[in-house]
Amino acid sequence: RSSAKLVAPLGCLVSRQKHTLPDLPYDYAALEPHINAEIMQLHHSKHHATYVNNLNVAEEKYKEALAKGDVTTQVSLQPALKFNGGGHINHTIFWTNLSPNGGGEPKGELMEAIKRDFGSFANFKEKLTAVSVGVQGSGWGWLGYNKEQGRLQIAACANQDPLQGTTGLIPLLGIDVWEHAYYLQYKNVRPDYLKAIWNVINWENVSSRYAACKK
């Protein structure tokens, strides 16, 4: 019975389609002045594209190792799968979390949940900003949903560690604090970047994610 359970996922890996770079739902310059066009172009067309390409290479090698029953190679590929897979997952969420029509505050159920779990929107904003500023080196600040507890939760992840795969929280809002996300415009002053990014947060997208994970 255990062998039968493995057939489907392995079959999916063998026959899978290659990952592709998603299109941005807006122009590179659309988030100016808060995030400039040069950053967006490099971030999307170079950095995210590299994660996608490297993920495809790692999965191809993993597929070959599976076919050979080469467990040593499968284990050695885990860091590349985690880093590049996480980079692809995280950035795919990030682009939709931003909008030229963003900013302000969320409404409806999400706002009520934020008030319930953090006391106020201002308190939530301050906490997520502080967690994001405090990430050592490179990583992400996240608002996630704890399905077991039925509440919102703030977390930080190092490097490109994906939120759900490493903490179990369902990602709602991710803030990229790798230097490539802000250095060309904000230099080493991460707090200025974090102050600016709240002006382009797409609360409709975050609210949709919240509604979907509660179903």
UniProtKB/TrEMBL annotation:
The entry's cellular-component GO terms read: mitochondrial matrix
First-level EC class: oxidoreductase
- Which Enzyme Commission numbers does its entry carry? 1.15.1.1
Major place of residence: mitochondrion
Arranged from A to Z, the UniProt key words for this protein are: Manganese, Metal-binding, Mitochondrion, Nitration, Oxidoreductase
Binding residues annotated for Mn(2+), in chain numbering: 43, 91, 176, 180
The answer on whether this UniProt entry bears the keyword Oxidoreductase reads yes
Where does it live in the cell? Mitochondrion matrix
**Pfam families reported for this sequence:** Sod_Fe_C, Sod_Fe_N
Cross-referenced PROSITE patterns: SOD_MN (PS00088)
Q: Tell me, what does this protein do in biology?
A: Destroys superoxide anion radicals which are normally produced within the cells and which are toxic to biological systems. Destroys radicals which are normally produced within the cells and which are toxic to biological systems.
This protein's name: Superoxide dismutase
Q: Could you tell me which species this protein originates from? A: Vireo altiloquus
